[in-house]
Amino acid sequence: MLKQILSKLPKKVPKSDTSDSAQGDSGSATTFANVFQCSNVGVAISSKLNAVKRVSSVVFPASLSAGVEAVDPHISFKDVSNIQKQNLFISKLNLCCTVYDKNCTEKDVKHQTLVELVDFVSSGSAKFTEPSIAAMCKMCASNLFRVFPPKFRPSATGGETEDEELMFDPSWSHLKIVYDLLLQFINYNALDLKVAKLHIDNAFIVRLLDLFDSEDPRERDCLKTILHRIYGKFMVHRPFIRKCVSNIIYRFVFETERHNGIAELLEIFGSVICGFALPLKEEHTIFLCRVLMPLHKPKSVGSYHQQLTYCVLQFIDKDPTLASTVITGLLKYWPVTNSQKELMFISELEEVLDATIMTEFQKVMVPLFRRIACCLNSYHYQVAERAHLLWNNEHIFDVVSQNREVILPLVFTALVHNTQNHWNRAVLNQTENMRKMLSQMDEELVLACQLKLEEEDSRSSAAAEQRRVTWERLEAAATANIQPIAVAGDVVASPACSVAC
């Protein structure tokens, strides 16, 4: 009875049956929906994979291997056909991307491979397609771009660098070949600049400029040549290079005062300034005022002063109206306690004055010759001698003679002071010769300066005598007004003292 009742109850449909019935009810619509959903997932996954590929292609360019037949890099260029030489060239470049810290067989093989690459490029057989350009830049970046260890030597703080021991990179024999290969690559006549600038980009140039801080002078010399070639060939990078060099100098002058490649960078800009078009852009004038002139401030200016002077003179040669700006900058950074720097400044000042026109000279002659008068009175005999020798320059003597009414009164006192007080016999002789020269230039003006100086001396002597008499009266009055007072058996002076002078 119970079984009959249970058999009449409706049975529960299984999930599979339900899904089957639902699929049967909806027909093919559900099937297409599932297929569409799966295709969307597939597109999303493929798009993510493509994004990963794009990101990886930035770090490791896909063009290095796309469409390039793999060739054993150990084969010589002589053993392959002309068609395969390009693929072999790329394979050898990829082989040289590995950097070995220790001496091993692979390092020797890499060295030999680099020599083969240099010979292949110098022969003119190479064809720099986009894959080969990308492989070349990657190989150079892998071998050259590195972080230098911190500088612990005391000389790095900016002292005299002429007598210190030079530091040479132990891996220079390897780096030299890479630099030669990079230079030949940039100088290659058939190089497609439109493609090359995509790989020699801003990031590549920044890392290249960082290498100028190398302590090895041979490396800095190679970098100087390479950067100059890049500046000449890639016009699109010129503003960026100037900006980066300015930032390096800013950091050197105002923050660290530590950099090994300032002289080399200034050598590059010496030739760059020669190519500036006239009239000069505001950017170039700002470079002179805010970059070059502050370079006179660091203690280590002696290591690059010759290159700095050349750059400054090139600006004046381009635009003579900048001479007053340069002289004002020199006076601003004029050393006070460093006699060696002062000698360098006087030498640079003479060269600047040689290129200065009269109108610009008259703008700065008063503060300029006040500073020269201080140099004439310097107790460092070399500074005093060098300041006296300025007057032997024909151009300087000519502009001084034309403005003698202003200049002679500024320096005459210094000459008289030297005659009376200077300790060095050579300086005394130069002072006497200079006084004779000025007397021949304008004897009446010299006599007037002498009379004026005597009047000032008499007034100062009268003022000194008056001060002496006043102090004597004060002492006498103080002595007369002292009253002895007995305090507990001791005799002390009275503190009350009224003096009227």
From TrEMBL:
Belongs to the phosphatase 2A regulatory subunit. The B regulatory subunit might modulate substrate selectivity and catalytic activity, and also might direct the localization of the catalytic enzyme to a particular subcellular compartment. The gene is LOC106756379. This is Serine/threonine protein phosphatase 2A regulatory subunit. InterPro entries: ARM-like (IPR011989), ARM-type_fold (IPR016024), PP2A_B56 (IPR002554). GO terms for biological process: signal transduction. It holds the Pfam family B56. SUPFAM superfamilies: ARM repeat (SSF48371). One of its GO terms (cellular component) is protein phosphatase type 2A complex. Residues 1-25 are annotated as: Disordered. One of its GO terms (molecular function) is protein phosphatase regulator activity. It comes from Vigna radiata var. radiata.
